[in-house]
Design brief:
Elements lengths: L1 E7 L13 E7 L10 E6 L5 E6 L5 E5 L4 E8 L6 E2 L3 E3 L4 E3 L3 E2 L19 E4 L2 E5 L11 H7 L3 E4 L4 E4 L5 E5 L2 E2 L4 H9 L6 E7 L13 E7 L2
Parallel strand pairs: 2-9, 2-10
Antiparallel strand pairs: 1-15, 1-18, 2-5, 3-4, 3-6, 6-7, 6-8, 11-12, 12-17, 13-14, 15-16, 17-18
Length: 228
């Protein structure tokens, strides 16, 4: 298994650009209490393809930014609750769209037989990092690594300039197998664009990297575990 590490430079500048509006809402249980750490996926009405994904915060709130005009719905999954959806809605690309709270119902636990299946959610929060579990993900099937990154929380992909940014910061450094990946970012972008997501097990987005990484790239990193 090979490993790719992409780091955001600490001294990088805030990415310029324009906001295309906001889609936000809340995930709640039957008692109107916010549900944290739920996987929240924004999907298109046309073919249910995923446009962007995120995780609800401690209060159950979620937000999507820089979303193009279109017709969408929100899908929510979390262990212990049945998968839920928002109604279809139109988004005009430049407004703040506050959706009604999505209520989750607990899954029925009255089972005659219990089968334990180890299925990881697409997005997971671990200490100091966001993990995108690409392997065996239906949402990532047929996509390139760049496509997956484009849908990951906090990641912006600029296909015109062949550049990446995380949390509004650019200047990405790539490491492979723990070693600095010595090629221009544009070339690395093209390489990731040609790498199928089926060859990647997971992507890690780390905003507070350990001290053992180079100081010139300690604003954050993305780590791709490649199968094979």
């Amino acid at each position: 298994m090979r490993e790719f590490l992409l780091l955001i430079l600490l001294a990088s500048c805030v990415t310029s650009g324009f906001s295309q509006g906001v889609i936000q809402g809340k995930i709640q249980d039957s008692q109107s209490k916010g549900i944290s750490f739920a996987n929240v996926l924004l999907r298109t009405e046309v073919d249910s393809s995923m446009i962007k994904g995120t995780i609800s915060d401690e209060l159950g709130d979620y937000k999507f930014t820089d979303i193009p005009k279109g017709d969408y719905f929100v899908e929510v999954t979390i262990l212990g609750y049945a998968k839920s959806y928002s109604p279809l809605f139109a988004f005009f690309g430049n407004e703040k769209n506050e959706l009604a709270a999505i209520l989750l119902k607990e899954e029925d636990q009255n089972l005659d037989e219990v089968a334990v299946t180890a299925t990881r959610p697409l997005f997971e929060l671990e200490q100091g990092k966001m993990v995108v579990n690409v392997a065996n993900s239906i949402s990532a099937a047929g996509l390139s690594v760049i496509d997956v990154l484009e849908r990951a929380p906090g990641v912006m992909v600029n296909r015109q300039s062949n550049s990446l940014s995380v949390l509004g910061k650019n200047g990405v450094v790539i490491l492979m197998n723990g070693q600095r990946f010595r090629m221009p970012l544009e070339a690395a972008f093209q390489m990731l664009a040609g790498l199928n997501s089926s060859d990647v097990e997971k992507i890690e987005i780390i905003t507070i990297p350990p001290a053992n990484y180079d100081a010139d790239g300690d604003a954050g990193k993305r780590n791709l575990d490649q199968i094979g």
